[in-house]
Target: Amino acid permease
Amino acid sequence: MTDATTHSSSRQAKKLGFLTLAVMNIVAVVSLRGLPAEAVYGLSSIFYYLFAAVFFLIPVSLVAAELATGWPEKGGVFRWVGEAFGPRWAFLAMFMLWIEVTVWFPTALTFAAVSLAFIGPDQRWDEALSTNKFFVLSVVLCVYWLATFIAFKGVSTFAKVSRWGGIIGTIIPAIILILLGFAYLTWGGAPQITLSWDKVIPDFTHFDNIVLAASIFLFYAGMEMNAIHVKEVDNPKRNYPIAIMLAALGTVVIFVFGTLAIAFVIPHSDINLTQSLLVAFDDMFRWAHVEWLGPVLASALAIGVLAGVVTWVGGPSSGLLVVAKAGYLPRWWQHTNKNDMATHILLLQAIIVSFLAVLFVVLPSVQAAYQIMSQLTVILYLIMYILMFSAAIYLRFSQPARPRPYRIPGGDIGMWIIGGAGLIGSLLAFVFSFIPPSQISVGSPEAYVSILVVLTLFFCALPLLIYQLRKPHWKDENTDFAPFTWQVEGGHPGIPTNSSAHTSDVVTRQSSHH
Model:
């Protein structure tokens, strides 16, 4: 999940080069927060990262590019799924995106709280503070509510903070982590994992090895965000795929080498999901005799997470506001302030985040709560991706003549291969996400699975119920949400159409006839 901004506007006349777009995508996707979870696997993490890149990262990137250029009207994933399957499933997809981010906040902020705990000079005391539930809870609540009030000020207030936060808190620490980890190995440090080629392929006789790896898919989530910039790319047919491949390569390199750097330094048995990144940095700095860098880096990581959270507080809520004004949520949800920010949606989001954060204090360990929240985020996000991949494949048949400035190469077979790989990968990861990992103590496995199943069913049933109860007066008469193509043409999402015009052209043509 991205910890960096993807909302910085690129409407300038100057076209984006492929290198600029590649860097934007790397900043959008890469987060160092999850590396310790994969460091548990040692060398076999390489296999998982490459597998997830082939079956998820590349399909998401290419499918989103085709959908964003073919249906550039407002709405994003709501628009794409709605064109294929109608507004009910589109609303489910959009709601999943909003609620998934809401569930993700406590896990991202737990990492920020742990980073802040490590700013102190005494590592043993820092580690104790980072496991103190009340310290973690107070940081999560203070920072989140602060971010919410900053979001009320409008996008321009925090755009700069989030862009620089991504560079200071993600890219620079990633480079330092990789350089020090491999320097440690090169200059005689004893690696904490066995370095042999046979360790790269995981031992699939242990079913648990598959489970925690399902969460690796979400590491790569977010590449669809920058598909909105595809129209601003110079020569998109050639440069967009190049930018995507460079970004995918850069992302995989940071994840693979960053994970290995942690695995070299921290023994397998000592890896902790919330602390190990900071402990690895501290160990490396001690080895390199630059201990004073520890608090500096902990501060940088905290800035990166905080900046990302501030940005993400405003992002999906703005998307949900567009959908609400199109008539899919009651008027209460559509309330905005003078900066056009969705104040009621933001407040509701803050209340849900506060409730989930309090669960951290109730559950047996911060690590167990962290794992449940992380897995729920994966499950909800994957439902959105399953709908997105299905829509992309289906639209090749229901709207075959629709102009697509970027089209996945290889015709319909190319779409079946790329979109199909993403769909199957997402479905497998979805199923595996419900199985408790044996590497982490999550209390009772039955309770763990039950909590995940109940929460997933609840969050899926909620948007379907809201959709069923919608009223005509919910629609804002000033909404700028364009109707779906099949609505304009008087058809249904399930009936194929050979129309070769963009929605805006059809609307213009109809209004000139009246």
Observations:
- The radius of gyration is 23 Å.
- The longest helix spans residues 293-328.
- The mean pLDDT is 82.
- Residues 30 and 376 are 20 Å apart (CA to CA).
